[in-house]
């Protein structure tokens, strides 16, 4: 059954006049007559009762008209949804992130700006470790991952791009002797107890901390570990030790914690996104483009 014939039927039912209906539809009156007859033959029923002076819907025609209108409305909705999905305005995106990504503001900015132009796209966010993110992006369970560099290896077909770079600094209890210094030498930390986050060894933030310590001949004595940077800051505030943290952790604003740069250390921590190189889903591509624009803005110092 052709949708255009249902459209012809609905217009004729409104006008109850072949001439006026044909004019509205932009077709010749004989063509409209032929299409209505073809629809009636296809359905095996009479939809309109015709005389020389009038056109009326039959009882069957009135029932059929209601269904025809619903069918046309659904077809219009289907076409609209398809066009919106094709433009990336509909769909859902699965996003994984490491906890420290929240403090940088990059993910929040990307989501906020993306939703302005794509309010109907559902964003599903889950805090996931680095190794699992890489596996899930590769397998399709995640569309985008936000993690800390470096990573030990990338699965085939997975791309990576740096989004945000920040210094690695030291979090210190407010009453600690080192809190009075403007910056801290690694040598001053040799007898200090450390607290650290439980991140996969050999990748992410811990890997960069290991590089700093190796370069400075420091073997930190880790006495406590926390699952997240927020909990880590709490351990520092409680006086259980000092901690290497990304500079953005300052945004947590815990009163009993102070932050100091590391003297003669220029190590930076990179927040990056991972994605499938073959990605074609319009909504996901649009979100990746938003992240890339933010990364370029960050490079120019405008973020």
Automatic annotation (TrEMBL):
Keyword Nucleotide-binding attributed: no
GO molecular function term, any single one: DNA binding
Domain HTH lysR-type: 1-58
Gene3D superfamilies xrefs: Periplasmic binding protein-like II, Winged helix-like DNA-binding domain superfamily/Winged helix DNA-binding domain
Pfam families, sorted: HTH_1, LysR_substrate
SUPFAM superfamilies: Periplasmic binding protein-like II (SSF53850), Winged helix' DNA-binding domain (SSF46785)
GO cellular component, one term: protein-DNA complex
PROSITE patterns tied to this protein: HTH_LYSR
Origin superkingdom: Bacteria
Keywords (A to Z) from UniProt: DNA-binding, Transcription, Transcription regulation
Function recorded in the entry: NodD regulates the expression of the nodABCFE genes which encode other nodulation proteins. NodD is also a negative regulator of its own expression. Binds flavonoids as inducers.
Family: Belongs to the LysR transcriptional regulatory family.
Protein name: LysR family transcriptional regulator
Organism for this UniProt entry: Bradyrhizobium vignae
Lineage: Bacteria, Pseudomonadati, Pseudomonadota, Alphaproteobacteria, Hyphomicrobiales
